[in-house]
Specification:
alpha+beta, 5 helices, 18% helix
Length: 264
């Protein structure tokens, strides 16, 4: 059974980001909502507020909770998310990397700065995809935006979102991200108004970001690894950090570990 139109596969390969309308049923969306409610009531050890204390809303993040939030686990195991990932990646195998909760409360001013995800991670390889599904309607002005084609490279310097510090790769070792918002018309920016049930899918190297929001914007994200993705231990703390993994999994091998189950 195919879940993805061939045009979407081609769009993903070209742009590094695509929207899949109606990817999930209302029941599947409600399942994730229940998981998010549980997650917010019982934050995990990696939970953090990613907005300033002076912000009129909060930007809350949490990572790696699928093993302790039963609703997340059920969604991962029973929804078509992994099957969609497989078709978009054109991969024989789909492995879960991690889950990521992102909640912007009403009136949150903190934008998510333009960035790539993979430089923050402990994996190398080209075959991957992330899913970002909203649990609330998302207007175009508050949606996740992408710079089409940036998944083809190069890697760009990862920095902390508020202080813009280089806590990962040393200063000068990667090309700096351009000042996209200074001249938005110069870049092929894409993004979509979204409803619950829709999801956007993007490569870990696709430059993306989003504005603040006037309304509640709860989103649940899953990261998937394809056939060529391998462990890449770093000399610094990755985001998220997998404590002790470097002692259990050698470098440059597939992520064959209980934390990263094969789904398809």
């Amino acid at each position: 059974m195919s879940y993805v139109d061939p045009q979407a596969v081609a769009d993903y390969a070209r742009d590094g980001a695509v929207v899949i309308r109606g990817a999930f049923t209302p029941e599947q969306v409600e399942l994730v909502r229940a998981g998010v409610d549980r997650n917010l009531a019982e934050p995990g050890p990696l939970a953090a507020v990613a907005s300033a204390e002076t912000d009129s809303g909060r930007f809350i993040e949490d990572f790696c909770n699928w093993q302790r939030i039963p609703e997340y686990r059920e969604f991962i195991e029973t929804s078509p998310a992994a099957a969609i990932a497989r078709e978009l990646m054109q991969s024989e195998q789909v492995r879960l990397y991690h889950d990521h909760l992102l909640v912007k409360e009403p009136r949150t001013q903190q934008r998510t700065p333009w960035h790539q995800d993979q430089p923050y991670y402990n994996v190398d390889g080209r075959i991957n995809v992330s899913m970002w599904m909203p649990l609330d309607p998302v207007p175009r002005e508050s949606t996740l935006e992408f710079v089409a084609g940036t998944h083809l490279g190069p890697w760009l310097m990862p920095r902390t979102f508020q202080q813009e510090q280089a806590k990962w790769f040393p200063e000068g070792t990667l090309e700096e991200l351009p000042k996209i918002d200074d001249d938005r018309d110069a870049y092929p920016i894409i993004g979509w108004e979204l409803e619950p049930g829709d999801a956007v899918w993007f490569h870990m190297l696709t430059v993306h970001g989003s504005a603040g929001t006037t309304t509640m914007r709860r989103a649940f994200s899953l990261r998937f690894l394809g056939d060529d993705m391998v462990h890449a231990p770093r000399a610094w703390r990755t985001s998220p950090e997998f404590e002790g993994l470097v002692d259990e999994l050698p470098a440059d091998v597939p992520m064959d570990h209980p934390l990263f189950p094969v789904l398809v």
